[in-house]
Structure formats: C-alpha cells, structure tokens
Specification:
By secondary structure, the chain is mostly helical. The protein folds into 2 domains: 98 residues, no CATH class; 226 residues, no CATH class. Helix content is 57%, strand content 9%. The chain has a 3-stranded antiparallel β-sheet, with no helix packed on it. Strands 1-2 form a two-stranded antiparallel ribbon. Helix 6 runs antiparallel to helix 8. The chain is globular and about 65 Å long.
C-alpha cells in the first residue's frame, strides 16, 4: 500500500515540522481528561486510563476503560474520542467538537450528531477529588484514633499527628476564634474540612501528570455553593433587616436594595473566582516557561539549548512559590468563609464586644 508523501518545505529531503501551538498545549494540560498522562516515551504515551461511562438511547449503557480508544485512534463500537488529528482531518469546528470529547460516528467515520451521547465518565478531576477525599478521611481518622487513645493529650503528639496539630490549632485560632468568637466550635468541623480538602487537592495538583482540580471552575463552584449554604443558614434577623432596610436615607434605599441583594451572591462568587484564578494561573505560568524553551528551539536549536537552563530555573522557582500558594489559598478560602459567616450572625460580635467588627479584606 502506497503511503502519503510528507509535506515538503521546498527543499529536497526535508519535511515540514508540525507547528507549535502553545495555547492548545497549555489548555490540554489544565483541562479535564479521560486519563492521567505522565509523559511520552518513544512516541508511546505513559498514562493511567480511567473508566468511561456512556449512555445513549441506541446502545444503552456502556462501561469500559479509556485505553480502548488508544488516544482517539480507534473506535469503541460507534464511539470515538476526538483528538486534534481527527478534528483537523475532518475540518470540524473546535468550538463544538472539542478534543477529549466522545461522539458517535457513522459508518463513513463522520461525527453523527443525531446520536445523543451522555458522558458520565470519571475524568481525572473527579477521580483526583475522590482520592483527595479518601486521603483526608484516612489522615483525620488516623489522627483522631491517636487522640482517642490519649496520645497527644497525655503525651506529646508523634509522627504525622505532630505535623497536623499545629495547622489545626492555627486554623482554630486565626480563622475560627478570630472571626466567629464564642460560636467558633460549631463551625470548626466545616472550616477544617474545607481547609484540608483544598490543601490536599492543591498539593496533589503539583505532582506532574495529575489534575489541577482546584484550577477547575466547577470544583471551586461546588465549594463556593457549600460555603454559601452554610452562610445562609447562619443568617439572622439583623442580616436580613440590614438588606431590606439599609441604614441610609430613604431615597437612597431604592439604590441600595439591589446592591445589598447582589452582595449576598458576590461573597461566594468571590470565593469561587479567587481560588480558581490563583491555582490555574500558577500552572499556566510554569507551562509557559517550559514551552518558551521549545519556541526558542524552533527558532534556533542553539538558542533553545542556551535559554533552557534559565527557563527551567524560573519554572522551579514558580513551582516552589506554588507550594506556598497551596497553603495560602486554602487559608484564604477558609478565612473568608468564616468572615462571611460572622457577618451573617444576628448582631455579629455585638454580644461580645458591644460593636460590630469590620472585616477588612486585602
């Protein structure tokens, strides 16, 4: 069988190298996927496939591993995992037919939009969130068991218990007590859970090949909605009276009503966007520095090798900063949640200090 000739560059014996698309490479690394991809060795991807769960009226339920797609090169029944090669070959609109999505195809190999495919697959974001939850439960149950036996109460904490205890005390004092006053104990289970869950996901996302879960807007939205529910259940008469009847002159109340109502929803929205933006930006910066090596290398091989140590050092520096950011963002999310809960109390801290404390957010 005759093979297609490679695209020529105008010079005999030379082929045109594929063009580097930095934006696509970066988006692929931070987006969800049906596998954990670590690296490619001799043109063979080294990855961990994840379960694919599909439903359609024509075929019912289908469950199989994503490795059967062979990265979009093979069909599973009538279904194809779209990749860039297929999208480019068929000249599909990438806004509709995005790489990594699963579509049904007809006998001619064309995408068949008439077959509605419902994808309930466990992507790497979902799997990693589940792993983080299991890690959180395992760590905390183990530490709680030590305290139940008196270790850390009658004697000094040991091992991992000694590392976690200062963090718990810090969250209790700087997040719980400082914002919620005497009511802090009621909210500590939620604040500690959300702090450690975000922290574990942040740290796992720094491992090459894993998912940047906290850099996914759906994940941060779920956390923000949980915080919003807790804030709403903490509201009292003082909170709603301030919204319905703000302490301003009567003509200004008409303007303040929509502002106050919007303020109810902007608080969780701020939590969602702050965590998402900070966690995804660090990954994008690191990837950008690495890609710059290949961009300069495409211009000139010597330039690529010459600049690579500089960009690698920059990437390592940002990576170390990201470790610090992982702790900071977990603290900020928990702290702002506590601040918003305190603002929802009836009378705030008036019962303790005689005046409402003002929360200043830098």
């Amino acid at each position: 069988m005759a093979q297609d000739a490679p695209a020529a560059t105008g010079e005999t014996g030379k082929t045109e190298a594929p063009k580097l698309n930095p934006s696509k490479i970066i988006l692929e690394h931070v987006a969800d996927a049906h596998e954990f991809h670590f690296f490619t060795y001799h043109k063979k991807p080294v990855s961990i496939p994840l379960p694919v769960i599909l439903y359609s009226r024509e075929d019912g339920w289908l469950v199989f591993m994503s490795s059967r797609f062979e990265h979009g090169e093979k069909l599973v029944g009538r279904y194809r995992l779209l990749n860039e090669d297929y999208i480019g070959e068929k000249k599909l609109d990438e806004k509709i037919y995005k790489p990594g999505r699963i579509w049904a195809v007809n006998k001619a190999g064309e995408v068949d939009p008439s077959v509605k495919v419902y994808d309930f697959s466990l992507g790497r974001n979902a799997v990693q969130a589940i792993i983080s939850a299991i890690l959180l439960i395992w760590i905390m149950v183990g530490i709680a068991g030590k305290y139940a036996k008196g270790q850390g109460v009658k004697t000094a904490p040991t091992g991992f218990q000694g590392a976690v205890e200062p963090i718990v005390v810090f969250v209790r004092d700087e997040v719980g007590k400082s914002n919620l006053g005497s009511r802090y104990e009621k909210y500590m289970p939620f604040l500690l859970t959300i702090f450690f869950f975000i922290l574990i996901n942040n740290l796992l996302g720094l491992i090459p090949g894993t998912a940047n879960v906290t850099g996914n807007i759906a994940f941060t939205a779920a956390l923000g909605i949980l915080s919003f529910i807790v804030i709403m259940f903490s509201t009292g008469k003082h909170y709603w009276a301030h919204i319905v009847n703000p302490p301003v002159p009567a003509p200004i109340k008409v303007i303040m009503w929509p502002v106050e109502i919007m303020g109810v929803f902007t608080k969780p929205f701020a939590l969602i966007i702050r965590l998402f933006a900070n966690m995804i930006s660090g990954h994008i910066i690191i990837l950008s520095f690495i890609i710059l090596i290949f961009i300069f290398g495409a211009m000139n091989v010597g330039l690529g090798w010459g600049t690579s140590p500089f960009f690698v050092l920059l990437s390592i520096f940002i990576y170390l900063i990201e470790v610090l950011v992982a702790f900071i963002q977990a603290f900020i999310f928990a702290n702002l949640t506590a601040v918003f809960i305190a603002q929802a109390f009836e009378g705030g801290h008036e019962d303790e200090h005689g005046h409402q404390e003002e929360a200043v957010i830098a």
